[in-house]
Amino acid sequence: MEEQVNRLVEKTWVWVLILCQGKTSLATTVTSRLNALHGKDTPIAVYIPMDGYHYSRAHLSSMPDPENAHARRGAAFTFDGPAFLTLAKNIRQPLFSSSKTLYAPSFDHAKKDPVENEIEIAPSSRIVVFEGNYLSLGKGEWKEAARVMDELVCIVS
């Protein structure tokens, strides 16, 4: 895995998407290495897991077939694709000294629900590392979000 990380870190990407088993470990490692190579106090890379875009359990309960929604939690339709697309488009906006910090949701595994505005995306962030199973799904909001990314990477472990 060290060789894969080195290859990824050697490139300068505005966006990286990682799909694989062990995706969280690899995404956090790449993000940490990019920030270490940058060598400044202000991180240049930020990691955003797709887990934060799970619909809440309350939202799943409000769906037309709540039993199916809960049973299939983790399927593409149980994620908030529109919210992810909004973030992807907002991140792609030009940066100015007046640009505001953006926020992404995280996921609280103990509560089994997303936590809104938990991950800070500072205007100094130049590389955003997303990871998740549906980021290159090829339909709906996922397809549109993939179009705004500079690089889509699938690493098979």
Task: Explain what the structure shows.
This is Putative uridine kinase. One of its GO terms (molecular function) is kinase activity. Keywords: Kinase, Transferase. The protein has a single domain (2-154), classed as P-loop containing nucleotide triphosphate hydrolases (Rossmann fold), CATH 3.40.50. 35% of the residues lie in helices and 21% in strands. The protein contains six helices and six strands; from the N terminus they run αβαβαααβββαβ. The chain has a four-stranded parallel beta sheet with strand order 2-5-1-6, with helices on one face. A two-stranded antiparallel ribbon has the order 3-4. A hairpin with a 4-residue loop joins β3 (102-108) and β4 (113-121). α1 crosses α2 and α5 packs parallel to α6. The model is unreliable at 12-18 (pLDDT under 50).
Feature tags:
157 residues; alpha/beta; Rossmann fold; four-stranded parallel sheet; two-stranded antiparallel sheet; kinase; transferase; P-loop_NTPase; kinase activity
Question: Nutshell version of this structure?
Answer:
This is Putative uridine kinase. The protein is an alpha/beta fold.
The overall number of domains is: 1
Sketch the topology as an H/E string, one letter per element.
Answer: HEHEHHHEEEHE
The biggest sheet amounts to: 4 strands, parallel
Q: Could you report the average pLDDT, rounded to the nearest whole number?
A: 87
Q: Give the overall form.
A: globular
Structural class: alpha/beta
CATH class: Alpha Beta
N- to C-terminal distance? 9 Å
CATH topology: Rossmann fold
Strand order of the largest sheet: 2-5-1-6
Q: Figure out the total of helices.
A: 6
Number of strands: 6
Unreliable stretches: 12-18
Fraction of helical residues: 25-40%
InterPro entries: P-loop_NTPase
Protein name: Putative uridine kinase
GO molecular function, one term: kinase activity
Keywords: Kinase, Transferase
